[in-house]
Amino acid sequence: MDQPLSLEKLARKSGLSARHLQSLFNQSFGVTPHVHYLALRLNAARRKVIETPASFAEIATATGFNSASAFSRSYRLQFRESPSETRKRLRSPA
User: Quick count: other Cβ atoms within 10 Å of Cβ 43?
Assistant: First the structure.
């Protein structure tokens, strides 16, 4: 999760061309591989925000984002709130 794979690497690992893999993803999931992979990374990050005391910079690194600010922007777009808002709202008492 911390080292996102490019479409070309995913295609090579699956024995398909990048174009064919993208087409299959669109047909099967209705989104591109990039959008699907970003959603997986953001869901993993959300679990870390809620379940761990890790800093947002640590979570960003662990889920393949270049910076805490890039992570926060993507997180807010996906979940309509910041990581800190999620942590305050959903975190289980320690």
Answer: 13
